[in-house]
Amino acid sequence: MPFGYASPEQIMRDRAEYARKGIARGRSVVVMQYADGILFVAPNPSKALHKISEIYDRIGFAAVGRYNEFESLRLAGIRYADINGYTFNRTDVTGRGLANLYAQQLGMIFTDSIKALEVEIVVAEVGDTAQDDQIFRLTFDGSVFDEQGMAVIGGQAEAVAGRLKERYSEGLELPQALDAALSALTEPGGERPPAGQLEVAVLDRGREHRKFLRLAGPRLERLLESAAAPTETPAAPESGEGAPPAPETGPPIAPDGDIDTGSAG
């Protein structure tokens, strides 16, 4: 038994403060809706240790904090999805059910263990329409938040979320959504991370069967170029004596933001 006495309230406060400090040391992750699904963006120089992963056909997972702790949660979620999908029906595996499972595990560990898990996670499920999309944010104590449109976890989450709200709107195309996410993740006056230090994935509702697609390499570089390209309006020639009449022009054409959405390599 430990020496001395501490009230249950003080123990819980200490655990919560310990977990918050550990999570804040990580880099933020952005999860947001776009026109065709849900986008995940995380600064991550590692090629092997992923913060963003697939759980099931329509369900994606993002996390910050201690890698070994949220990796065990990810694997538990995959086992839960595989068993329920095989035993019953694949449609019985939902993001809400997975979020409830994680909430129970996180809450039990926070209450009963000496140390809380230093993790914060997002479970996202893409639906047949944008209104059916679901994004759940879970904190270290098992609290579940049903986010609308976007979620930010880890690092300076409040500051990143504030910058993201300034640029977010419903129905953004993928290049514009990625541009908004990177602008939010970049400190004012700082430089955006290159493609090699980004982890980007989508849940694309237009894909057959498995909706999760990881974007990397040349595909991500092309997408970043599309996101950075400004929309330019062609200037009309100056009118004057001897100058040819200005041609009739339609509305400016937006840069092509389409990318190859084939299966991941």
Key traits:
265 residues, alpha+beta, 6 helices, 10 strands, 34% helix, globular
* Share of residues in helices: 25-40%
Which stretches are low in confidence, meaning pLDDT under 50 for 5 or more residues running? 231-243, 249-265
Cα end-to-end separation = 54 Å
Strand content: 15-25%
The strands making up the biggest β-sheet line up spatially as: 8-1-2-9-10
H-E string: HEEEEHHEEEEHHEEH
Number of strands: 10
Silhouette = globular
Described by strand count, sense and barrel closure, the largest sheet is: 5 strands, antiparallel
Category from helices, strands and their pairing: alpha+beta
Explain briefly what this protein structure is.
The protein has 265 residues and is α+β, with helices and mostly antiparallel strands. Helices cover 34% and strands 21% of the residues. The protein is globular and about 65 Å long.
